[in-house]
Amino acid sequence: MQGEELRHIVETYERFGIHRAGTDVDRAVVDWMEGRFAALGLGTTHIDAPFDRYVTESTLTADGVEIDHLPFFYEWTGSIDTTDVEVVLADAHAGGRDHDLDHTTDAAATAALVIATEHPDGSLVAVNREARAHDGRPTVLVAGRDHARLNAADTVRLRLDAWIEPALTTNLEARNDLEGPPLLITTPLTGWFGCAGERGTGVAVLLELVERFADRPLLVLATGGHELDYLGVRQWVAARRAEHGERPVAVIHVGAS
Questions:
Q1: For residue 224, what is the domain's CATH number?
Q2: Which domain holds residue 117?
Q3: Based on the structure, what is the number of domains in the chain?
Q4: pTM of the predicted model, to two decimals?
Q5: Where on the phi/psi map is residue 74: left (φ > 0), alpha (ψ -120 to 50), or beta?
Q6: CA 68, CA 153: separation in Å to the nearest integer?
Q7: At what angle do helices 201-212 and 3-15 cross, to 10 degrees?
Q8: Alpha-carbon separation of residue 218 from 127, 168, 215 (angstroms)
Q9: Residue 222 to residue 96: CA distance in whole angstroms
Q10: pLDDT tens profile 49-96
Q11: Is 119 exposed, middle or buried (0-12, 13-18, 19+ CB in 10 A)?
């Protein structure tokens, strides 16, 4: 592929919107990827990855002005409307692990907690989460740049409704028709936001690699639920171990740092 075609793939991925697991966007991207694989001569298999989806409706205001935020997934379920809110600034350690903010949530003493995440550009750092109850308090994340405004406000109000519902994400498996131990090429498809810089580029590189290695046996895997502690790939690996599935000759993983 030429550079412009790779760029077009990234832009197409970005245009789908917010890429969280179990959403309409998640399903649409899987359908798109299935079409891309078919165009490359691969046969595909959909493998459901069930999970408990965290669903929310929320508003956060500082003296009546709405603040962009992200509910801290799985920390708490229920319904609350409160001004008993603590605002803290915390290092989310790039958001890669479920417990990266435990030191902050465990220390909270108010009815609700707002965590402003430290970032060189003042951005919001989402944190990968295990899809399980965490038994915490109502908590949302905001961009570090909003910490000063929230901290200076006379009234910070959080309204949060959060609940769990059953959902599915998808592991999309694709193969060519060549015999022998396969080369496994894999990338995740889901994430917290638009994810074009990481997931989108991963998709583009994966499709380029499928073209480049078309002369050898291929097993290609596009997984769901990466932001939920790698939910999709964990389920896929566990199933292959249970089935004593064929071992790949090598694994190329792209699209996630």
A1: 3.40.630.10
A2: 53-165
A3: 2
A4: 0.92
A5: left
A6: 15
A7: 140
A8: 33, 26, 9
A9: 19
A10: 999 999 999 999 999 999 999 999 999 999 999 999 999 999 877 656
A11: middle
